[in-house]
Amino acid sequence: MKANTLVTGLCVGLLSTSAFAFHCPADMKKIDEALAANPQLSQQQLAQVKQYRIDGEVHHKAGKHQESIDTLAKAMKILGI
Ligand SMILES: [Cu+2]
């Protein structure tokens, strides 16, 4: 029973990690698509979005998926997506 609980916990941990790993590229894709669609943003907002997009990718590649998602979320908020 104890071993089962441990295995279940381990699986949930692995699943959430891979869900995060998948989440960032999906967010980056949404941002890229929004940027390609000529968003109505100021130069400053556009620069911020691009910076967050780059930072998000860096965090993602470093395995810091939660930070990546948080950073990409800021870009998406500016874009209104
Ligand atoms: Cu990631």
SSE layout and pairing:
Blueprint (H helix, E strand, L loop, with lengths): L1 H35 L6 H19 L3 H15 L2
Please, could you describe this protein's structure?
Helix content is 85%, strand content 0%. The chain has 81 residues and is mainly alpha-helical. The protein has one domain (20-79): Substrate Binding Domain Of Dnak, Chain:A, Domain 2 (Up-down Bundle). α1 (2-36) runs antiparallel to α2 and α1 (2-36) packs parallel to α3 (65-79). The structure holds copper (II) ion. Residues 20-21, 24, 60, 65, 68 line the site of copper (II) ion.
Which key phrases capture this entry?
single chain; 81 residues; mainly alpha; Substrate Binding Domain Of Dnak, Chain:A, Domain 2; 0% strand; binds copper (II) ion
Span between termini: 45 Å
The stretches of 5 or more residues where confidence is low (pLDDT under 50) are: none
Under CATH, the topology can be stated as Substrate Binding Domain Of Dnak, Chain:A, Domain 2
Shape: elongated
Mean pLDDT: 87
Short description:
The chain is mainly alpha-helical and 81 residues long. It has a single domain, classed as Substrate Binding Domain Of Dnak, Chain:A, Domain 2 (Up-down Bundle), CATH 1.20.1270.
